């Protein structure tokens, strides 16, 4: 796997096709595997959420559509919209009614920053933080070892410490860190284990 950022790969139509193919696997439909992940997001009570890197809208669906998705992949945005979700490209978002200071309760970055360099991750956070209300939350979710290895567009492995560093760099206070759905050692073999870090934006002067 290349050590150079290749996040542009995730903007191609075939990356959308990969996301659709993965979520439509017969065993995932049979077992309804999204149920625990839906429960995990909903128990966090995120409120109106800005889902940056929303892909085809899986997390927005798990949040019952209570939010807006942004993604640089136009094909993924089109797929999310076809599912009845509010999703747009970064340029469209910037020109939309939603791009207002403090408009959202939470900024969600789920399976995003592992696709970019540390500098790019910091820049992404800074770009979207102004749209989160005072005292709002930032939730960052990254794959663990097996999940990281499963996608060639991943360029940087982030554990709790690396995710926390991103939030600290942005002046965000970390409130909670946990492994989901199983303890972190399971992430060495279980592809869908995740690091979840929840932070809170401090009050602005």
What descriptive keywords fit this protein?
disordered N terminus, alpha/beta, 9 helices, seven-stranded mixed sheet, Rossmann fold, 205 residues, 35% helix
Description:
There is one protein chain. By secondary structure, the protein is of the alpha/beta class. It has one domain: 3-Layer(aba) Sandwich (Rossmann fold), CATH 3.40.50. The chain has helices at 13-23, 26-31, 34-43, 58-62, 74-82, 90-94, 118-128, 145-149, 160-169, and strands at residues 49-52, 67-70, 87-88, 104-110, 132-143, 173-180, 194-200. A seven-stranded mixed β-sheet has the order 3-2-1-4-5-7-6. The radius of gyration is 16 Å and the shape is globular.
How many domains is the backbone divided into? 1
- What's the number of extended β-strand segments? 7
- The CATH architecture term is 3-Layer(aba) Sandwich
Question: Number of helix segments?
Answer: 9
Topology, element by element:
Elements: H1 13-23, H2 26-31, H3 34-43, E1 49-52, H4 58-62, E2 67-70, H5 74-82, E3 87-88, H6 90-94, E4 104-110, H7 118-128, E5 132-143, H8 145-149, H9 160-169, E6 173-180, E7 194-200
Parallel strand pairs: 1-2, 1-4, 2-3, 4-5
Antiparallel strand pairs: 5-7, 6-7
Short description:
With 205 residues, this protein is an alpha/beta fold. The chain has nine helices and seven strands.
């Amino acid at each position: 796997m290349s050590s150079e950022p290749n996040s542009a790969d995730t903007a191609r139509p075939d990356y959308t096709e990969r996301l659709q193919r993965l979520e439509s696997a017969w065993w995932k439909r049979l077992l309804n595997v999204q149920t625990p992940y839906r429960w995990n997001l909903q128990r966090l009570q995120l409120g109106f959420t800005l889902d940056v890197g929303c892909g085809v809208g899986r997390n927005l669906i798990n949040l019952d559509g209570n939010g807006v998705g942004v993604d640089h992949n136009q094909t993924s945005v089109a797929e999310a919209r076809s599912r009845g979700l509010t999703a747009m490209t970064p340029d469209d978002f910037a020109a939309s009614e939603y791009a207002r200071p403090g408009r959202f309760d939470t900024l969600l970055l789920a399976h995003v920053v592992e696709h970019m360099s540390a500098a790019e991750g910091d820049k992404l956070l800074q770009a979207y933080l102004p749209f989160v209300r005072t005292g709002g939350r930032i939730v960052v979710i990254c794959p663990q070892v097996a999940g990281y290895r499963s996608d060639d567009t991943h360029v940087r492995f982030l554990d709790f410490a690396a995710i926390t560093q991103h939030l600290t760099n942005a002046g965000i206070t970390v409130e909670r860190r946990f492994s989901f759905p199983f303890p972190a050692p399971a992430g060495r073999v279980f592809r869908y284990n995740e690091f979840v870090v929840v932070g809170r934006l401090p009050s602005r002067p």
